[in-house]
Specification:
Length: 282
Amino acid sequence: MLIAGKTGRTNSQVTDKTHHIVFANEKGGTGKSTTAVHIAVALAYQGHKVAIIDLDPRQRTSYRYLENRVATMKRLNIDIPQPLFEVFDADNLARLEQLVRRMSHGVDYLLYDTPGRDDKFARFVATRANTLVTPINDSFVDFDLIGQVDPETYKVRKLSFYAELIWEARKARAKADGTTIDWVVLRNRTQYVEAHNMKRIVNALTELSQRVGFRIIPGLSERVIYRELFPAGLTMLDKDHLGRLATSHIAARQELRELIKHLSLPQPNAGGAEFGKPQLVA
């Protein structure tokens, strides 16, 4: 079932201008779905046409989040920016390709929320990405996904399997159509990490980024508000429906603004609305 909000359109022609953003990490618990939904809604608030495909039919976190958002709009009789969204629950690449083509109709940005495990469909969409976002927590447990460090010096010893996989995908994409995949490692949940350990992680990330060419950007801090918003499908940008905002909530909105800025996405609709000020597209 394809679900659209007021900002979605499905009757436009397929365009090769759609920017594909893949959120991928083979480990769970990194805030991947929460980040994907907030970015999708943020882009919709800017007036862009946005869609998101949830590639995890078991968890369906981003799908359920946006499904809750639709229910809240109906319950409260409100009209807030809403991306198109769908869950992929088939078992072959041909069906996924069909869904991607359908969801790309008239869309500026198509986001993919992939499972927190090795998955052939996640690998496939990674090769289709224009921007590949890998959220990690500031922990060497998460860092191990992309690189292995010396236990004494914390210098990077070698790439991990996942980093090698993305490296090969980027080379193949560049050879196939000349496209450079912008690989972004997004540091989530940074505020609870002990300062000395954080410095080691930052140094290791910087060293590894110079080897394989990913960018490092700040993400979202660990905040209870993100979990509390899920049942209503709301985000930090829906300030008119969140009641009185605490200082931490205002800081969370600013984090999201900074995250969008550092993603450096192309702007197909230049001059879009400021976050929090809907510019709906008919």
